[in-house]
Amino acid sequence: MTGLSLPDELAARARDIIAGRVQPVPARDSATVAVLREGPPGGGAQVYLLRRKSTMAFAAGAYVFPGGSVDPRDSDNAVAWAGPSPAEWGRTLAADERVARGLVCAAVRETFEESGVLLAGPGPDSVVADTTGDDWEADRLALIDRSLAFADFLAKRGLVLRSDLLKAWAHWITPEVERKRFDTRFFVAVLPEGQRTRDVGGEADQVVWQRPAEAIELARQGSIFLMPPTHQTLTELTAYDSVGAVLAAEREIVTILPQVLEIDGEWRLVTS
Prior knowledge:
Helix content: 25-40%
Number of strands: 14
CATH topology: Nucleoside Triphosphate Pyrophosphohydrolase
CATH architecture: Alpha-Beta Complex
Structural class: alpha+beta
Radius of gyration: 19 Å
Largest sheet: 8 strands, mixed
Low-confidence stretches: none
Oligomer: single chain
Shape: globular
Number of helices: 8
């Protein structure tokens, strides 16, 4: 149980929290999606990663999956829906129906905002084939600046959210010592046939399709930075030799809340 060493500022904050001088900030519900595609023959699955801009307040410079916080409107009953119901998702995610609806909607909305991948279609058995036109880009930007609600976006295009295209994968909560905290459900999904990802999103300055094992090796070399939840998810994905194997995997969703402990006189962040 070695964990990650905390910088002095967070170590001081940890002492204040333990002593009751500072209260942890609440964790915001959020969702993130590891978008997968089949790589070259024999290469296994690839995953879409974005590098967050160095100016971002949270996880600056880190390579992450598309995702973000739940918009209050994501829980709107008006969101057109196909696939497992919010109640079913609630059982999977250990959340009430309203929260589950918001998490699934946020997963689909944020994935579109940050990658251009849209897990929605005209009906329960179809999916949009192309989202690269100027009109799609205008809608994507309107979703990002919150001038367009996700329910209205789907309605005006005659689309339904395809919740069956998501697979629940993990549940991480940001440590209490952090100043920005998220209660994040991790999902996996497959890049729909015909769709293409964008080169960059609003919060990213670089994107890449990478085999999970390659991303982990680059992080080991210090070439890229991965947050612990991203690193753990990529590590888990290395166990599967194809996208189909990932989707067929049985998952038990266990909540992970890393703890801050003083070990041999040094403050460290540990996950177990």
